[in-house]
Here is the input.
Amino acid sequence: MKSMFRSLGIFNYRLWFLGALVSNVGAWMQATAQDWVVLTELTDHDATAVGVTMAFQFGPPLLLVGVTGWVADRFDRRKLLLVTQTSLGVISLVVGSLLISGVMTLPLMLTFAALFGVANAFDSPARQAFVSDIVGRDQASNAVALNSASFNMARLLGPAIGSLLLIVIGSGWVFVVNAATFAAMLSALLLMRRGEIHGGGRPKKGAGSLVGGFRYVLRRPDLLVTFAIAFLVGAFGLNFPIFASTMAVEFGRDADGYGLLSSSLAVGSLAGALLAARRDRAKLRVVILAAGGFGAALVVSSLMPTYLTYALLCVAVGFASVSMMTTANGFVQTTTTPALRGRVLALYMAVIMGSTPVGAPLIGAVSDAWGPRSALVVGGIACLVAGAIGLAWLIGSGRLHRRDTGGFEITATRPIDVLTTPNEIIERP
Here is the structure.
């Protein structure tokens, strides 16, 4: 148990964990409100509109990847996060005010979704890399997993609170409440002991372009496979706002039913994150197995006949999805040199978040045309394909081989450092 929470022994990380927990609860409240507003207030149950809104929100990380990774590596990440977190809070406050005043429209919501996306495009790689700055590389895998646990604890609470507040105070005030929660993260960043923050891994002169990050990834076939899996899962599997909101309508439920489905996902997600925190290091084989399990869970969930049975399957869906995402994130962070971590994470976040504009509108269109159950099947098949790609690479690379005593074993991934330049990759024995 102690090893599971070992990163919490670091003062700065305790501040970060608590600040992130409060802020993430607000973020999940807002996400619940935003999707429900688009589905029921700004349109007449148009799932495609929800998908398009997600595309506007998650498109900027892909479009701005050439800038955001460089910024995360070049500038003080703590100061950068102070700027991005403040910006996100201000945008939430403006959106809430427009909803309260009754002047919000779908085009305006799409515009603000894009603004959220731009702010997150700079925030995400800096935030992911800053976790390693707080705890150091040796604790990074555990800290990333606990970060995911914080995120999913918030995911357990946020949608339930958000759906209740939607009914009690209205959608606009949910955005206002979320704006207030950013104070927790800003306070954590301001109160940190700066002398205990590890080096930010800024690049040497001449190594500041994104090209170094691309070259590094291209020479790491294990990272290429991780990115390919992340793209398919992100584009077609991680469309929970569409799946949960349309299935809630499918079963004749209101906003409270939608929020409870999101919380069911969070129960499994939290379990997956805590299990990842117990592992000494992130392993690629876990990413591959979890991607396949995620796909299978989505397909099975599409067959559930009642709201209750679907909600129970959502626990398995959440467990598999977060096991895959947390382990993939930890694998990328802990096997990437600190000098390039910001740029590699920017590429990774662009793949995860930037895949949404590709998949979310398609999933929304499938839901509108053939129903939400068909959308779940399409998402599940894509994740199964992602797992198959990873398995094929394991076999083709020679990492999966027979034991002398029978059965199979997988050669472990060794940590990789870039000791001189991004193009000189040396494996530690």
The CA atoms of residues 222 and 284 lie 8 Å apart. The chain has a mean pLDDT of 82. The chain has one domain: 3-198+206-400+410-424.
